[in-house]
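Minimal example, chain plus iron/sulfur cluster.
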Amino acid sequence: MHITLLDCYTDEPAGLGVPPYLGTYPRYLYGLLQSQGDVRYITIDDLRLHFHYHGKVPVTTVKDTTDIRVYNLTRPIKKILEDTELLVVILGVHVPGKYLSALPGTLREVVPMIKDLKCKKILTGPAIFGTQLEGGKSYEKTDVSCFDEVKQFGFEFGPFDKLQEYALKGVSIIKEIPDYRIIEIETGRGCNIGHCSFCTEPIKNKFLNRKTDEIVEEVKAYYALGCVYFRLGKQSDFYSIEDPIGLLKKIRASCPDIKVLHIDNVNPVFVVAKNGVEITKAIVQYCTEGNIAAFGVESFDPVVVKENMLNCQPHVAMKAIGIINTYGAERGPNGMPKFLPGINIIFGLGGETKKTHEYNMNALKEIYDKGLMLRRINIRQASILPNTLLASKFGSKFLHKNKKYYWKWRNEIRQKIDFPMLERITPKGHILKDVFTEIYDGKTTFGRQVGTYPLVVGIEKRVPLRKFYTVKITKQMLRSVTGEVV
Ligand code: SF4
């Protein structure tokens, strides 16, 4: 049987599968389905190019922005689509973000393109729990009757039974992808303390850690195929996985030439807990610079924290930010601090008032005034996803009530916190190495280092794309910097 995996990309609180990241869903399915036929991997970009551009890659003139809708191509797919007997569509965005060089597919976009294909169709991935590419909206309500099945495969969610076999078989998927990928590695599922109102992770999975040796084995298998960029990112908290220190040591020992080893989500509660400092030190020692502990603080307003059962009290977050700065602020060879905290803030949660913004601003100002560094502040509007507490208890009440303030709130954080913070992290004249150029916007080229939430650098001329440069910082923007190639 000819099986085609169509990756429309995934973004969840615990797990990123938007290029340059390669998520777990296509990889595991690639392993699983090999026993049932000949499996091919294609992307939503391939599908768009085929249907909307007759297979011809558009040229970006000096007036244009690179079309990121057709950026992550594998190869022409006409024949692959003709041969396909089973099409598995992987889709689902639960925490929409801004993506520099990719645009995830939505159901509204994908269904019209595939509905007439003469093959069996399955929809899977986070979308089976709802999907929404735009923050501040309810989940997509597109007719999915063109799919023969809408289902989860047994190993995607739930226990790790059998996962290892498919994870290892799936590594050869990388041979179908011409560009570099950051391999998002799964270390655990579910959440051991959280019931946050907006989050789907506890709904999808019971808390469970993946075995350390199995994680190492998967990293080694990708490394053997030439992959050198990894993020141990699919988990709700890196500090509470089975053996964080042992895992990092083993990966380093068995993959000595790894270029990027980063983590993602961290629960501040476990940074301040016993052993938190030891784990922090190990992350600084064994991971690569530019690493970020993404703290899901969501709000510094105690009312919002309580109403939404958020996992972290503001004073705990403050303490954890201090600990990570103490050990991680030193710079590594590529010019970035080794390990810094990042903060996620969500607008539209239950109990939000004008005071919420005051609490957030005061806390962020305190962090800045203490001389600490935050690598990035992610601000998004809540997506109301089915079966969450946010949907059942508050719906979009607070989103609607406060929407008129969001631009102002966000802008104040960007101007008063992000801007001076970036001056602290990458001052004028600072050198950043290994900046990979990705897109053009008119005469400007945008690039970033490879890794977790890298800083976007605008180079004010056109330089060839998909190459690494050393850049000297010339100016700070609100969330990015400009630089010149040296
Ligand atoms: S701590 Fe909250 S946001 Fe994080 S995974 Fe758990 S429930 Fe979700």
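Residues 180-425 form a domain with the pyruvate-formate lyase- activating enzyme fold (CATH 3.80.30.20). The mean pLDDT is 94.
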